[in-house]
Amino acid sequence: MAKKKNITASNIISFYMDYVLEHNQQPKSVYAFSKENNFEEAKFYEHFGNFEAIEKGIFKAFYDNTITALHASEDYQNFEPRNKLLSFYFTFFENLTANRSYVVYALNQHKNKLKNYVVLKDLKSHFTHYISELGIELIETKQEQIDKLQQKSLKESAWMQLLLTIKFWMDDTSPSFEKTDIFIEKSVNTSFDVLDVAPIKSLIDFGKFIYKEKFQMNS
């Protein structure tokens, strides 16, 4: 049988996901994996360096599919940051749910929990960049170092929130994972309520006013 010639990254990802779900382990080698799926080993290396790279690529693909779907929505473009993030979450978890068996396998395959989450490295990079581009309003201090620290803290806390949501979803046994939907809505809304700078800005403005008036009265 002639070898398949037009092998894409998506093809390899599909082959890999099918293999690990059927065998509950990684293929023994790239050679064996390529042979089983009838394509040249060299084609594998055109897209991925090893199996770990595929695993990282799968979660990045979930992210990419989510972003593609969101950008196709005219409504999404007009959303405030809060609703954009909610839309991201609901769409992202639809992607995860469509591939739940693989996701659970990938994040539970090692006894060392930290090792399991190495496969999320690329997802973290893209997700935290997405967060930084949302335009979430923070308090401007006019101090570059403090503003940078705020941005870093925002991205890290958003990433931790996503990880917690993934863990909740993995443990969720409710029909259609409806409890995860509730968790998403409440956690995202709570995060934005905590970040709401309007009351703090009003307090700062009021403080400035009092200080200015007091200074003028004493001068």
TrEMBL record:
Pfam families: TetR_C_23. Residues 84-210 form the Tetracyclin repressor-like C-terminal domain. This is Heat-shock protein. It comes from Mesoflavibacter zeaxanthinifaciens subsp. sabulilitoris.
